Amino acid sequence: MAMLTEADAKTKWCPMTRCGDEAGCNRNGKDFAADPVCIASDCMAWRWFGFVIDDAWTEAVKAVAIGIGDKSPSRHKAADHVNKNRDAYGLSTEKLGFCGAFGQPK
To answer: Which strand (E) or helix (H) includes residue 34?
Structure first.
């Protein structure tokens, strides 16, 4: 199980897919019109995690922390500012999530 963008999740096979009233239709070899893929946030099991945290995000948080005097170990004020203004820092605004039907990602 992995953290995925919603678009990526919608390309993954889902064992919970149902076709009409027939449970398990996605693995019985029959030809159904519906794709047996994840429906991401349209599913009750979908869980949002948050934004991508990469080197660019880390550098933006460090720079903002210096600028605003956030000396806390977590730099939570700077991180909050960067997350609310991701476009201004050239960071992706796409959130990550995961299927919560089978636990949490490790």
So the answer is: none
